[in-house]
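W.,

You were right to be curious about this one. When I first looked at the sequence I had no strong expectations either way, so I just let the prediction run and decided to look at it fresh. Below is the sequence, 251 residues in total, followed by the output.
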Amino acid sequence: RMAQENNPTLAAAIARKDAAYASQWQAGRYPNPVIGYHSMAMGNHGTSGQQGGFVRQQIITGGKLDLDQAIAARHTSEREFQLDMQRQRVLTDVRILFYNSAISARRLELTRDLVRMSDELVTSTRHLLNNRQASENALLQSEITSEETKLLLDSATDQNIESWRRLTSLVGAPSLPFTPLDAAALETDLPIYTWEEARSLVLDHHPQLEAARQRVERSSIIIEREKRTPIPDIDLMVSIRHINPTDSDTA
């Protein structure tokens, strides 16, 4: 939930999808009408000449607007699948880093136990040495093992901090204080898929493939749209003016 609310790549994908929707709406509309004022022959016979206004509208013919909107609709669908694809990527990364962080915490816990047992071994070996039941080499070996486990503890601590920082950065909350994670999912049995089942899931539902299919359909429509480009459009203009020297109106 935090990743879906804060991850910037999702916000960018949503913005691209919204822009595609707006472009789809605009693609099926006629160009804006032009309304203007014009004057000619000012000063003729000491008058203001010809004064008037006009309205102009371009009419797109040949069904080109419908094709433009169909092209934009495929682009919108592609953006939707790309958003879904990015959402799945983010969620997958969150799951991976969540489990990595949970595993790091478990590793740190076990390493602490190992350090405790190593220290106890050193204490026991020293006690045995004092009672002449162990050699100095045995004590030295136990001390070496204890130092090695402490190095492992330092490494496990660093890995735990690193995994937590990577997780909080991904969900867009880098200042989130360290919080224990529920690692119960680590013990859950994973579903088992056959090759054919996995292949079918990918080919039938993968958003990246769906986005590619939308691009193919969009390209086909673009070809049809280009074929209709030579069909001429229609420009309509109505102009009305008053001719002051003759006090008459013309259109």
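Here's what jumped out at me. The beta strands are 34-40, 50-59, 234-243, 248-250. And, maybe more interesting for your project: The first strand starts at residue 34 and ends at 40.

Coffee later to discuss?

I.
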